[in-house]
Write a structure and sequence with these properties.
Elements lengths: L1 H8 L9 H4 L4 H14 L6 H38 L13
Helix pairs in contact: 1-4, 3-4
Amino acid sequence: RLSEVEGEVYQVQNRSNQDPLNYPIKLNNKIAALQSLVEGAETRPTEQSYAVFENLSGQLEGELEQMNLVIQQDLARLNELLRELGLEPIDSERLIT
């Protein structure tokens, strides 16, 4: 399930210089493109830039919520399995959420 979140935020299929032409850009690229556009302008950001930022921020927030849901639900089960195998559990406090 974390792979699904990663795939929405970052284009994981890029392997060569040609791949960005074959696979769509994801949230990280869209946000970076908007940042470049706003930073390169000699005036304040346009209303359209603010609207795009709000849209992209909302999409990213949704993906972060999904990531946190996976951490809350699936990590507990994984830690149970790790303990059964005699392995150290993953400390959820060390995860960035």
